[in-house]
Design a protein that fits this description.
The chain is α/β, with parallel strands linked by helices. The protein contains 20 helices and 14 strands.
């Protein structure tokens, strides 16, 4: 940009200053962005985000890190998102279906995201999907949230919903499944920045900014006093600011550094704030470098991105399986579930018989166990993941009769607020048969000779006589979480 033209533009801007005031910081940011583009900025950082729509960690990452970054830096990023996560694609006799970690609603939610990417302009699709994830009511990523986001963003949600309910949604989700499989990840959200894995405990925007060779304006900080518009513009020109640097040094350069560590309900902190700090802030803020730390004597509990993978192969009426579930697995689930990636396979030593187009099962403890196994797989298919695990533990932990039957399903449904009728209907239908067939195939691939058969990060855990399941799980962590150490880390 020609310097004389730039000077004339600043003068014209100042003429309208009183009518259309814009703060110096905001105007400088606008000028920086314009100049940055005029100087031919073509560099973009690539971000690949693999996720599933009901995963709590994915929702948290979307709301607090990914969403704000896309809104503030979208022009400088090459963003690719893959709404599939830890789902599984099942292809049988020309039909395609999906098993999702948080049940069928998540599969449909993933399709809504995939269809938004297919139907909308890319940047608008990203913002639409971020909106779907950030629902304040219910689980989000459903028809109701799609309509709300469409209304807020002036987007027609009907084609997106029709796509998600049709063959196109299935084709798209299959594609994102294939792309996710290539990435070979074990947890979500899984994020790559210019092809390098992002550690979810790091500060996302800072890591993205560090990936640029030449940082764009959103990565720069501007420091300024409360100068008037004319002084600010003249200082920009006199220092060749627009060509040489992004940091502005105020006229009065000396500043005293003040750091205040406090907690918001501490009486002494409140007294100091009102009687001493507030008057100094109001009269001297432009001469001070103030940093406040609202933490005090709190304790810090770290967020762990590391997860241990647990696979449990079992059959619902096996006495050893019931004993392991109640005495060892249940306590670990209740105290450590947020640190674990748990997969259960309710099939055990059953056999699948395919004859004349029909599928039947022979189970070690008779037909009642085959039906009980179907109740378990239908719970996994119908309920959110952690709820399904607890429901199936409840089915196994019967004090009356053998458990894992209709009576126990109703009892557990009442205790947990779950719809047991839908689970029982699934167990009696073709869907229950299809699901048990799938878990049978997965169990066959594991090639075990007994149940319960348990893998911790792919290594066999000997359940015979052992009562140290929690210790074995904790030993699998590189950095054991608080339930393993029985202490909290304090941020000093």
């Amino acid at each position: 940009m020609d310097k004389n033209l730039f000077s004339q533009q600043l003068c014209l801007d100042y003429r309208d200053f009183k009518l259309n005031y814009v703060s110096p910081i905001k105007r400088a940011n606008t000028l920086m962005s314009t100049l940055f583009k005029d100087l031919g900025q073509k560099e973009k950082v690539r971000i690949d985000l693999y996720y599933e729509v009901f995963c709590p960690h994915c929702i948290n990452f979307d709301e607090n890190q990914f969403g704000p970054l896309v809104e503030s830096m979208g022009d400088y990023l090459d963003v690719h998102t893959y709404p599939y996560g830890n789902a599984k694609t099942i292809e049988e006799k020309g039909n395609i279906s999906f098993l999702c970690q948080h049940g069928p609603p998540e599969c449909y939610g993933n399709k809504l995201h995939a269809c938004a990417l297919d139907n909308l302009e890319h940047s608008k699709a990203l913002l639409f999907n971020i909106c779907l994830m950030n629902s304040t009511e219910g689980g989000g990523s459903d028809d109701k949230t799609a309509d709300e986001c469409g209304k807020n963003m002036n987007v027609d949600s009907k084609p997106i919903k029709l796509c998600a309910k049709g063959n196109r949604g299935t084709e798209l989700l299959k594609y994102y499944g294939e792309e996710s499989k290539k990435a070979n990840f074990h947890h979500v959200p899984y994020v790559l920045i210019n092809g390098k894995k992002f550690n979810n405990s790091d500060y996302f925007k800072k890591t993205v900014c560090e990936a640029f060779k030449n940082s764009p304006p959103p990565c720069q900080s501007i420091e300024t006093n409360d100068l008037n518009e004319r002084d600010f513009a003249m200082r920009l020109l006199s220092n060749d600011y627009y060509l040489t640097q992004f940091k502005f040094i105020p006229i009065y350069s000396e500043k005293v550094d003040i750091k205040i560590y406090y907690e918001c309900l501490c009486p002494d902190c409140i007294k100091f704030d009102v009687e001493q700090f507030s008057p100094v802030l109001e009269t001297m803020n432009q001469y001070l470098e103030i940093h406040t730390y609202p933490y005090g004597n709190a304790k810090f509990i770290p967020i762990y991105s590391e997860k241990v993978d647990i696979k449990i192969y079992y059959e619902c009426l096996c006495p050893d399986c019931i004993k392991f579930d109640v005495e060892q697995f249940s306590p670990v689930l209740e105290t450590m579930n947020q640190y674990l990636e748990i997969h259960t396979y309710p099939y055990g030593n059953a056999k699948t018989i395919k004859k004349n187009g029909k599928i039947e099962f022979i189970c070690q403890h008779g037909p009642a166990e085959c039906y009980g196994n179907k109740l378990h797989v239908c719970a996994i298919d119908s309920l959110q993941h952690i709820t399904a695990l607890r429901f199936n533990l409840c089915l196994m932990n019967s004090t009356e009769g053998r458990g894992s039957d209709d009576k126990m399903a109703d009892k557990c449904g009442q205790l947990m607020g779950c719809d047991s009728e839908a689970i029982k209907a699934c167990a009696r239908s073709n869907r229950g048969t299809e699901l048990l067939l799938y878990y049978g195939e997965q169990s066959k691939m594991a090639n075990f000779n007994y149940v319960p058969y348990v893998l911790i990060n792919g290594k066999v855990y000997n359940t015979d006589g052992n009562k140290d399941f929690k210790d074995a799980v904790c030993a699998a962590f590189d950095n054991p979480p608080p339930p393993c150490t029985n202490k909290y880390l304090v941020d000093k």
